[in-house]
Amino acid sequence: MTYQDHTNQITQLIGRQNGTWDGIDAEAVARMRLQNRFNTGLDIAKYTAGIMRRDMAAYDADPANYTQSLGCWHGFIGQQKLISIKKHFGSTKGRYLYLSGWMVAALRSDFGPLPDQSMHEKTSVPALIEELYTFLKQADARELGMMFRELDKAREGGNEIEAQRLIHAIDNYETHVVPIIADIDAGFGNAEATYLLAKKMIEAGACALQIENQVSDEKQCGHQDGKVTVPHDDFLAKVRACRYAFLELGVEDGIIVTRTDSLGAGLTKQIAFSKEPGDIGDQYNSFLDAEEITDLSTINGDVIINRDGKLMRPKRLPSNLFQFREGTGADRCVLDCITSLQHGADLLWIETEKPHIEQIASMVDRIREVIPNAKLVYNNSPSFNWTLNFRQQVFDAWVDAGRDVSAYDRARLMSVDYDDTELAAQADERIRTFQKDAAARAGIFHHLITLPTYHTAALSTDNLAKEYFGEAGMLGYVKGVQRREIREGIACVKHQNMSGSDIGDDHKEYFAGEAALKAGGAHNTMNQFAA
What we know:
The protein contains 19 helices and 14 strands. It is α/β, with parallel strands linked by helices. The protein starts with a helix and ends in a 19-residue tail after the last helix.
């Protein structure tokens, strides 16, 4: 409905109340409605699922249409990110939010900072989704509120052309609400637990759930050691649990991102159930590190499997975990991905140990032989040393090309000594184009950075502390923060406005008219920033 449609509808509604609602202003209600476009988290999930589905189709048509996101650990951080995107690029198209389980564990748990091992309260995940969308909706209310004020000014000045331009802009307003890809870890328990948590996350607004194939009670960060995977049937039960949650809640095009940690996971907690040779359980077990048993008297509480007609003893560690054969990680990843897509997943996530396009592409090429439109979400992780990795990649490419690399020590390419070299410049260019190149070559539909705002918060706080508590004193804040906010047009420089003070003033006027006691008068110091 347009601005005028809302106004007309409310005017008619007020008129039917026999004068008892005459104190209600129809245009004020229209404004409040437009400032709160989404009444529930499910409204958001349905709306954003549609965005992702359209973006996925656009990527299938042209891989230049890849999408991006940054991980955010607080509603304010997500809000400021979207405000900045709209300011710099004019649209949020192709830009999402990522909700990282790592950051929930490290920053949002009542236990305090925790490692990424699913030890945090699972309710903190839907709580953060709801918080992020609360702040994004508030960004809408704030920006539309400023447009309404401009509309009132245009009308008061008799500028009908400007008033019509503003009404057109209001009717075509682009919301700050964008898709969130939300990390449900390994499901926080059995499939029923996964279903219950998935429902809460969807009800909070999540249109895309990312789930990994690790054992939930042994879950590790994707870039740490000691990862343990589960058989496919166990994992697929949780994938189905997520789909049931979407369908029950009416989000029929919800997105499931299945993550495989098999590239770095050398262990499994259990041997897969197999009914017949070649089934999915048998394929999972075929990767186990096992030795043939020739003397039955050596069996002592061992688990024995049949492999090609031979009795085999899988290698079992003192932890009671079973070990996969070395060098099978890529093959297991490919099988995981194909199996997931064949059983209801929409997107894939392959957790790698380095950002190497050809490594990723070598697996995606094999997946696409079976499922041609397979697409990835990829973690452009801060756990990678991007500078070192790409300098080494350029170094290795030069060696393969027969170039002289005697001026470089491959082991210390991270050194500042190399910052101004041709090798470093080439590496930086590869980093700059990594997302575009990987989208085209390796099937990556969505690029995200899991923990960027964790690191930017630490870096900016370090810079401020160094200056403010040092010789610069107050100039450390003014020059390093406030002056830059003013010059660069950062929205929260007017922090009272950002926190909703002006929205509150508008509401006070709606509710109390001329009797409203408003905060935004002549003595509000925020007026100093008008210049």
